[in-house]
Amino acid sequence: MLVRTARLLPVISHHLHPSSARSATQTLGWSLGAAAASCRGPTPMEPLDTTPEGPATVTPVPDEDARPVGLLPGETVVKEGKAAILFPSANEVFYNPVQEFNRDLTCAVLTEFARDVLAGRGVKLVVPGETERVVVEGEEGDEPMEEKNGAESPTITAAVGEQCELGLRVLEGLSASGLRSVRFALEVPGLRSVTANDFSTKAAALIARNAEYNGVGHLLHASCRDASMLMYEMRGKKERYDVIDLDPYGSPSSFLDAAVQSVSEGGLLCVTCTDMAVMAGNSGETCYSKYGSVSIKAKYCHEMALRIILHSLDQRAGVYQRYIQPLLCVSVDFYIRVFVRVFTGQATVKNSCSKQALVYNCVGCGSFHLQRMGRRTSNGKNVKYSPAIGPPVGPECQHCGQRHQLGGPIWAEPIHDLAFVQKVLAAVSGNPSRFGTSKRIEGMLSMVTEELDDVPLYYTVDSLSGTIHCNTPPLLQFRSALLHAGHRVSLSHACKNAIKTDAPPAVIWDIMRCWEKTNPVKREKLTETSPAFKILSREPGTDACFTVREDANPQSRKLHLTRFQENPQAFWGPKARAKAGGGISTDLQDKSKKCQNKRKNQITESELKNIQCKRFKQGTCAHGDKCCYSHDPEEKTEV
Predict the structure, then answer these.
(1) What is the predicted pLDDT for the residue at 589?
(2) pTM
(3) SS3 sequence, 18-33?
(4) Region 402-417: what's the mean pLDDT?
(5) N-to-C CA span, the chain
(6) Is the pLDDT of residue 58 over 50?
(7) For residues 468 and 563, which has the higher predicted lDDT (pLDDT)?
């Protein structure tokens, strides 16, 4: 392969503030044909100093006749990982630097998944930066690959940027600029092909140009199709993709049915959800229409969102006699990200009912109970399935006397494969220079490995103390009290003050009653119907010990790993939605300024007198033209 040094482009590093990027107001009207034409010949490019941040900007060119792709008017280059992507400056929706963690984590997970799968095919991965090449043996019982003459075939080595005939076929259904797919091609070894698809013609043209610019045109292919139709057409067993990545703007619900059918047996499905307002309880009816589950506005809403999307995936897969196996599910910033494997098995699909559960949440004290949708009992080789028995709660909460909300169903099984997570954590910790967000990945995955995998949802210490209006107990003391009581406890990656424990709500409130005795509240200010009054009116059933134990402080907290980082910049959330014809809609920041204080400018009583009542509009108001919005009570009775 001939490698040429391309003339350097103005690079916008992901470490810089977006305001440092060159602004442009021109929109680009490329087509796929125009993109191919722009790759045929050289285009003048702007110079840059020779000390850029990060890896050197050297572009491998597949053949001698190819030339580096040039900049078009209003274009800039964004650098992330090993990829340098051409971006139209007028369309900021194509790139969100906050999502770098998402892309880094996906590359790390995809690498370990490829290592596990390809080990059985006799392929050994070579990852840049690893001091020792990790070789994962195949599963027990796998026979070595043999040639036709009966001799063992030599082990195949797969490196990044190379096409592996026995490698994985990857589909990114909603690729936008193709940044994620380019990073797959440049940073993940053992790939056979990467298909970067987008419904926008301009986006597909940009993907083709970025593939040529990064020298991965032999591995990455641009596609301009409807993502669902593309996946539906690849449902055949020999045509399915090994990895499907879905990262839409908002909800992925419309793509899930096609995705669970077009992923191969044991394939990896990566899904991102950014519609957290719906999944976190603000619109339970909308959540049900999209995911088949009712969300609840509770402190554990972020973990519940993870379990809602897993329930939706498992339910849709079950229609086709398939089931899911979660590898890693995380709640990060303003979105959630799940990595699941999809298998086929009619007998295993029958277990799906017993894996789902309804949630009874008390509106007063926040206590919750889970009700499984079905029961599965084993007697030797015989398995019996029966309906669940419930409900687990009475008409009123036994602790505060308030009513319960009903949410779900949600996935009630473990949401992580701890063995797989430890492999990813070991690979990232042993090669920290591979990703720009390695420290955060290490902290996040360390917390995941410390979580209680068989305990769904969690409490928060501040909400417990807020219910009874007392001072918040220190986290280590509260965890120690649970450990002294003989229960297991852990933190959660989804919330900073979360407490995951197998202790029932009665034990938790006994601990809070004991804490209140040393930090008393003013009982005279509590009303008799308040949850705090009813909880504190009972004596604790056991004496809690708040002496701090050594095992109460988890290892990730002792090492001060990056677990919950601060917002990296202002207005760091999701970008504006792309328009159907290209470009972006009104900027969210401008919309936020426009809507500020709109609820404070209320209509005064003098202004109400100029507004007619409903009867006036119907023509039945006795006041005629003197009608106003609010009539005096005496006049109303006369009418």
Answers:
(1) 59
(2) 0.79
(3) HHHCCCCCCCCCCCHH
(4) 96
(5) 93
(6) no
(7) 468
- What is the rounded distance in angstroms from the CA atom of residue 211 to the CA atom of residue 438? 25
Query: How much is the average pLDDT of 264-279?
Result: 95
Query: CA-CA distances (angstroms) from residue 348 to 318, 352, 416, 423, 592?
Result: 10, 8, 19, 26, 49
> What is d(CA 612, CA 545) in angstroms, rounded to the nearest whole number?
66
Q: How far apart are the C-alpha atoms of 457 and 413, rounded to whole Å?
A: 11
Q: Could you tell me what percentage of the chain is helix, strand and coil, using 3-state DSSP and rounding each to the nearest 5?
A: 35, 20, 45
DSSP H or E run through 321: none
| pLDDT band at residue 249 using 50, 70 and 90 as cut-offs | confident
Calculate the average pLDDT of the chain. 81
> Nearest 10 degrees: CA dihedral of 173, 176, 180, 184?
60
Residue range 162-174, pLDDT digits in tens: 999 999 999 999 9
Q: In terms of DSSP H, where are the helices of 485-620?
A: 505-518, 531-536, 555-558, 588-594, 605-608, 614-618
DSSP H helical segments within 63-133, as ranges? 100-119
Confidence of residue 66 (pLDDT cuts 50, 70, 90): very low
Query: If we measure between CA atoms, which residue out of 78, 59, 57, 79 comes closest to residue 67?
Result: 59
Angle at which helix 418-430 crosses helix 438-450, to 10 degrees, equals: 150
Question: Rounded to whole angstroms, what are the CA distances from 364 to 305, 402, 516?
Answer: 22, 5, 18
Residue 346 in 3-state DSSP? helix
Contacts of 150 (CB under 8 A, 6+ apart): none
CB atoms near residue 599 (< 10 Å): 7
The rounded distance, in Å, linking the Cα atoms of 588 and 506 is: 45
Amino acid at 10: P
CA-closest candidate to residue 65, choices 212, 237, 175: 212
* Integer Cα distance of 400 and 532 in angstroms: 7
Q: What CA dihedral angle connects 418, 279, 243 and 580, to 10 degrees? A: -160
Cα–Cα nearest to 287, from 395, 359, 339, 372: 359
Of 26-40, 225-239, 305-319, minimum mean pLDDT range = 26-40
Using an 8 Å Cβ cutoff, are 168 and 242 in contact? yes
**391 preceded by cis ω (within 30°)?**
yes
Radius of gyration of the CA atoms of the chain, in A: 29
Of the candidates 192, 233, 195, 190, which has an alpha carbon nearest to the alpha carbon of residue 211?
Answer: 195
Helix, strand or coil, per DSSP, at residue 69: coil
Other residues' Cβ atoms within 10 Å of the Cβ of residue 232? 14
DSSP secondary structure string for all residues of 377-388: EEETTEEEEEE-
Q: What is the number of helices (H) and of strands (E) in the chain?
A: 22, 20
